[in-house]
Amino acid sequence: MKNYRVAILGATGAVGQEFLNLIEERKFPFGELKLLASKRSAGTKIDFMGKTYTVEEATEDSFKDIDIALFAGGSASKTFAPAAVKAGAVVIDNSSTFRMDKDVPLVVPEVNPDAIKRHKGIIANPNCSTIIMVMALKPLYDLKKIKRVVVSTYQAVSGGGKEAMAELEEQVADISAGKEVTPKILPGASLPKHYQIAFNLIPQIDVFKDNLYTKEEMKMIDETKKIMEDDGMKITATTIRVPVYRSHAESVNVEFEGEVTVEEAKKAIASFKGAKVVDDPDEMLYPMPLFTSGKDDVEVGRIRKDESIEHGLNLWVCGDQIRKGAALNALQIAEYMIENNMI
Ligand code: 3JN
Questions:
Q1: Band of the pLDDT at 182, cuts 50, 70, 90?
Q2: How far does CA 101 lie from the centroid of its chain?
Q3: Residue 218 Cα, ligand 1 centroid: separation in angstroms?
Q4: Which spans in the chain are helix H?
Q5: What is the pLDDT of residue 48?
Q6: Which of the following is catalytic: 119, 248, 311, 318?
Q7: Contact yes or no for 90/67 (Cβ under 8 A)
Q8: Ligand 1, atom 5, residue with closest C-alpha
Q9: Distances in Å between the alpha carbon of 209 and those of 54, 133, 212, 217, 220?
């Protein structure tokens, strides 16, 4: 098998680090590996698979002779994706920059792999909460068309990056030691106010839009319709930051066009690659973020009828935000392209 020349942009962040973990764990066929970051992190040494790499500052010239460019996310995507494509690389981008661009496939490999074929150099990785939700929705949609989804998320601090994870850890330690805390990062470092996340919930992820939804909520709505290729599907979302480290959880209410039984839903989810049913009320078994962290599968449980409507189910979904919600999904896109001779 060919060995691919891989670049990781944003190698020092939480998603970048997870790319490295997964490349090793999944024996991703790389020959060369180039670790890129902003000027601030350039020069950082990273030990990986017996070799020490020096993180280089990303420039437009960084992508010469690169086959696959994995972009961890952030504003650097807009600057460097066009240059990487021009240099002949396929960019798999974890930022929202290109997700809703009609020329850019938005892909969860288990859900809509065929979209990859339409790429023109850039393939977008969906938002983490979107990925985790569609992993549960797709097997159900294949049983019966979905009319409407009502989702509320319980999002881990990992979604806010390494700084937000450190902030939760520090606040828990400080509060336990009887010290005052001064929130600095959440709900967003660039926002004018900050709130304590330890022992709290923050009902704001990203900025508010004119319709009073947050940007995170609108990403879930718009991206889900694009991935499921159904603009007519109705979705409403409320996204909440919770004091959990790295797995997102979601309460999802699904209304179908016809009957789907709990047993049918369980069977369909259990046989869907990348999803797992964890659902046994008698044994008190259900997905929990503590137990999905570090795992690849999205877990689904608490599957039951919504008795308030004719054809509805309630689900509880948990998935590792940095793995399936970001780095794993992006790497699976690259793996799919390799397996199907698309790269
Ligand atoms: O907060 C979360 O749990 C997920 C955050 C995602 C995020 C954070 C900053 C910028 C994104 C994203 O992936 O949608 C972006 C962005 O690329 O817009």
A1: very high
A2: 18
A3: 12
A4: 14-25, 76-86, 128-141, 162-176, 215-227, 262-270, 289-292, 328-339
A5: 98
A6: 248
A7: yes
A8: 159
A9: 40, 22, 5, 10, 14
CA atoms within 13 A on the CB side of 203: 5
pTM of the full predicted structure?
0.98
**Sequence-separated (6 or more) residues with CB below 8 Å from residue 50:** none
Measured at the CA of 195, the angle between CA 189 and CA 196, to 5 degrees, comes to 115
Q: What is the pLDDT of residues 250-305, one digit of tens each?
A: 999 999 999 999 999 999 999 999 999 999 999 999 999 999 999 999 999 999 99
Query: How many C-beta atoms lie closer than 10 Å to residue 91's C-beta?
Result: 27
Domain segments of the chain as ranges? 4-126+326-339, 130-321
What was the pLDDT predicted at 228?
98
Provide the angle, in degrees to the nearest 10, between the axes of the packed helices 128-141 and 262-270: 120
Q: Output the CA 127–ligand 1 centroid distance in Å.
A: 6
Give kind and range of the element (H or E) at residue 155. Answer: strand 146-155
Domain 4-126+326-339 classified CATH 3.40.50.720?
yes
- Cβ-contact 287, 318 below 8 angstroms: yes
Q: Can you tell me which residue has the tokens 């972009």? A: 71
* Residue 128 known to be catalytic: yes
User: What residues does 237 pair with on adjacent strands?
Assistant: 151
Q: Please identify, in words, the CATH class of the domain defined by 130-321.
A: alpha beta
Average pLDDT, the chain: 98
95 CB near ligand 1 (under 6 Å): yes
User: pLDDT-derived band of residue 1, with 50, 70 and 90 as boundaries?
Assistant: confident
